[in-house]
Amino acid sequence: MYVKNEGANGMNAIELNQALQMYVRTETFPVGVSIRKEEAALPSKAKRPVRDLGYPITICQAVGFSRRYGWSIAMNGADLSCPIAQVAFGYEEQPAFYTEGHLACGMYTDTLENGAKSELDVPKFSAEESGYYVSFPLERAEIEPDVVVIYGNAAQVMRLVAGMLYKRGGSIPSTFSSRADCADIAIKPIQTGQPQVIVPCYGDRLFAQTQDHEMAFSFHFRDAAELVEGLVGTQKGGIRYPIPSFLRYQAEFPPTYQKLAGMFGEKN
């Protein structure tokens, strides 16, 4: 089992999970994502898609298994079915057919030129940055995550944004493209160090069963203690989830209801 390793972060994955459940109350498990270079460094109980399931899967399915089933998944290019993710996560080089925009054109863009712009904008690992993609529920972490991703409704994501900004102020810049959210979730925080608000992509919804009401929030694990401090601080300030509804008012009723209420009054 994962052993506490504070370092500069000051918090381990299991402690982070406990705080998230207290202050955000997610419907599915918060997920850790780690990129591991060596097979020996993979979690001992991690499932390998081809070996254990009998077929390759997408990155978004791996996260789905972790957040819905509580499974740890470890995969590389041999386990991955999504061609775009093969390129984004550094398992395959970028052929001209990809860089010219043929995948996006006709589906997401009107021209090859615009398709090429879309592919260029997808965050990507180099071959040197690539490794085994590992996803796991934080509460069962055997290794330390590089990135944490939390799926929730818009109010829960707002709560996370407020927590992350408590000691920073300002706002969180994020980018949205409707595709390849797996790269925005994991690669962008690793490369930039910045948290991301995620609008789940079409593939995440189609293949990983992400629902219409869901969004996500991802951040580098080194920011975990800062996020939790922010969740605590904003909770004290009155920013809470579930959102407390304003209920201190007298309800108004239709005329027939009011007439009946008047009849009650006549008896007194």
Name its key features.
268 residues, 6-stranded antiparallel sheet
Give a short synopsis of this structure.
The protein is of the alpha+beta class.
Care to describe what's here?
Helix content is 38%, strand content 11%. The protein has 268 residues and is α+β, with helices and mostly antiparallel strands. The chain has one domain (13-245). It has a 6-stranded antiparallel β-sheet with strand order 2-3-1-4-6-5.
The helix-and-strand class reads alpha+beta
- Shape type: globular
Number of E strands: 6
> How many DSSP helices?
11
Written as H for each helix and E for each strand, in order along the chain, the element string is HEHHEHHHEEHHEHEHH
Let me know the largest β-sheet.
6 strands, antiparallel
Biggest sheet strand order reads: 2-3-1-4-6-5
Poorly predicted regions: none
Domain count: 1
Strand content: 5-15%
Distance between the termini: 69 Å
Report the C-alpha radius of gyration, rounded: 22 Å
